[in-house]
Amino acid sequence: MNVIEALHARVSVRAFLDQPIPAATLQTIFASAQQAPSNCNTQPWQTYVVSGAKREELKQRLLALVTSGAEPNPDFDWKVYYEAEHKVRQYGAANALYSAIGIERQDRQARQQAMIRNWEFFDAPHVVFFTMEKYLNIMGAVDTGIYAQSLALLLTEHGLGCCMQGALGQYPDPIRELLDIPPSRGVLFGMSIGYPDPDAIVNRARTEREELGNAVTFVD
Ligand SMILES: Cc1cc2nc3c(=O)[nH]c(=O)nc-3n(C[C@H](O)[C@H](O)[C@H](O)COP(=O)(O)O)c2cc1C
């Protein structure tokens, strides 16, 4: 699989087989992702790959917190109210997802249930948390995003799937506690990873991309 093929094959996967990724494969993928570039080569990402009993415990703690009605308290300023074309694309992505799984736009309860799946890690056998020192701010976030996409392409090349999840940065306290993350560091976002379930309808959701001319200006 070449880079173009991997870019097109990667889509957000939200249903996984009950099959862990071999430890050696995880090692290979995460070792290659270390090649991601970063500002001044600072490599700010401090990544946790959580599996097995710890993953289950974390899931239970996150679910308890989220369903208690607690307010999100992210370590970083995630809150953004999309406007204009961004809002249109946001709705487009939500529509692609909810129509794939047959949820009506007005069915708030069903949408809420679908949202909760984030903290169940979509039943993926492994969940990744991207953390970094809080003071690094926007540059650290840029670097970590580039790293995460490198990881996503590597996973795709290995026949694996992932879903990047801002939702996993919304309630950092149980994550910090269970993974013993120092207070100076924040949880930026997460990613569920595993073998995609080929029969799951949720994995048929497809999003669109803007025309090149509306996104890129070639100047000479
Ligand atoms: C930083 C980031 C955060 C995201 N957070 C979530 C999330 O919390 N839950 C979710 O289901 N998808 C999440 N997504 C997936 C996006 O909705 C998805 O990438 C987008 O709609 C494009 O679809 P595609 O990944 O299938 O190409 C996130 C993606 C990124 C890059």
What would you note in describing this structure?
It is a single chain. The protein has helices at residues 3-9, 23-33, 52-67, 84-100, 108-116, 137-157, 172-179, 212-215; strands at 46-51, 126-133, 161-165, 185-194. It is α+β, with helices and mostly antiparallel strands. It has a single domain (3-78, 118-203), classed as NADH Oxidase, CATH 3.40.109. It has a four-stranded antiparallel sheet with strand order 1-2-4-3, with helices on both faces. The longest helix is centred in the last third of the chain and has 21 residues, at 137-157. The chain is globular, with a radius of gyration of 18 Å. The two termini are 33 Å apart. The model has no long low-confidence stretch (mean pLDDT 97). The structure holds flavin mononucleotide (FMN). Flavin mononucleotide is lined by residues 11-12, 14, 93, 118, 163-167, 189, 207.
